[in-house]
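Handoff note, outgoing to incoming analyst
You'll be picking up this chain. Sequence as last confirmed:
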Amino acid sequence: MDTAIRVPIIGLRIGYDSIIGLIPGVGDILTLAPSAWIIIEAKRMGASPHVIGRMAANTATDTLVGMIPILGDLFDATFKSNRRNVAILREHLERKGAVPAGQPQYA
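Most recent structure output, in case you need it:
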């Protein structure tokens, strides 16, 4: 959702989140569903309330700032809340010993 497409020349990676977010009014709401799914899965995997809170704050920030015309679209292209959330969850699970450290990330 965050880095599927590489923008030629500038080398910035954007995702479907940024592209869908360009749709005025509904784009950022539509991208909330996959972000919420990541948080629900984190809860199912046993993430602590603190971890869930951090992930929810990232998602809320991405959604709310993303709703601002033009500035929000630029923010969406650089903030990458889903990648941040997966990294937070992965770090938490590694500390708990649920996932071996050093495994590749897929988000």
